[in-house]
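Summary of Year 1 activities. Much of the first year was spent building the evaluation harness for sequence design. The harness presents a backbone, in tokenized form, and records the residue chosen at every position. We chose the following record to illustrate the format because it has been used consistently in internal testing since the harness was completed.
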């Protein structure tokens, strides 16, 4: 059941000896926010922050479900997390109405990857070697969009990098 649904128990309300028909009991469902899970229909959504190392190298995440079970979400080493995609654990969401709890929605994880603010030269070189990239990087002197008329500039799709020159002194 979801917020706003109600359950009617016919004839279970107040009983009055002077009346032949008993009243009904109506129970209206309300929900309160959970610290970990957010419900969308029959699915449960979880946002979880991870490090860049966890995103690239795998990890295990124990999650205590609403019914007290502990699910261990295992992201194996070698499988990288893309923060633009969701990870789904099938049939671990909320029960679907009318199924007696046999069918359930999904538990969906969205991982927010925390990138470092900066890298040392040694870290940058190690990452480049591990990923098979170049370990030499050009130094950028100036970014500007007003450099279209500069002769000694490099076009970067609408932005130009101007290579600064020393001005010659006229004597």
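For this record, the design step produced the sequence shown next.
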């Amino acid at each position: 059941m979801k917020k706003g649904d109600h359950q009617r128990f016919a004839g279970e309300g107040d009983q009055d000896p002077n009346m032949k028909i008993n009243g009904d009991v109506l129970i209206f469902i309300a929900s309160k926010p959970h610290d970990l899970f957010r419900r969308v229909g029959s699915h449960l959504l979880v946002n979880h922050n991870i490090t860049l190392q966890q995103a690239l190298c795998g990890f295990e995440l124990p999650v205590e479900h609403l019914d007290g079970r502990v699910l261990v979400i295992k992201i194996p080493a070698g499988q990288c997390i893309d923060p633009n995609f969701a990870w789904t654990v099938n049939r671990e969401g909320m029960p679907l109405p009318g199924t007696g709890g046999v069918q359930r929605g999904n538990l969906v994880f969205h991982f927010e990857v925390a990138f470092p603010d900066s890298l040392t030269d040694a870290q940058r070189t190690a990452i480049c070697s591990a990923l098979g990239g170049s370990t030499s990087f050009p130094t950028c002197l100036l970014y500007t969009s007003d450099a279209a008329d500069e002769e000694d500039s490099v076009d970067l799709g609408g932005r130009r990098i101007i290579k600064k020159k020393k001005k010659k002194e006229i004597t």
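Helices lie at 52-57, 121-131. Quantitative recovery figures across the full test set are reported in Table 2.
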